[in-house]
């Protein structure tokens, strides 16, 4: 499927997590913004897409997303859950893994 075909899919999915690398990266179009995999799903009606801006370490991504799902069960709000999961990750991180390259690339798009 192309990104344009994905954008035409009607879905009842409320949250999509794209944990692969650089799923929010795409081609910049003047007056349109970035065409990316995450944007295609948003256009297809999925209201919350978690995607990454760059290559993120597998271990840190796993830690953050595991905690994200735990927080999501409590709050039922993906934005709050991702924020809290990142905060929890940073509290447990050492000096090296506290660097933003390990955690800041995961974002939620609405």
Give a quick set of tags describing it:
single chain, 110 residues, alpha+beta, 16% strand
Rounded to the nearest angstrom, the radius of gyration is 14 Å
- In round numbers, the mean pLDDT is 83
**Basic shape:** globular
List the secondary-structure elements in sequence, H or E.
HEEEHEHHE
Number of helices: 4
The largest beta-sheet arranges its strands as 1-4-5
Number of strands: 5
Helical residues, percent:
40-55%
Tell me the fraction of residues in β-strands, as a range. Answer: 15-25%
Give the helix/strand class: alpha+beta
> What ranges have pLDDT less than 50 throughout 5 or more consecutive residues?
none
End-to-end CA span: 22 Å
Q: Mind summarizing the main beta sheet?
A: 3 strands, mixed
When the domains are counted, the total is: 1
Blueprint of the fold:
Elements lengths: L2 H5 L8 E2 L8 E4 L3 E4 H7 L5 E4 L5 H18 L2 H15 L13 E4 L1
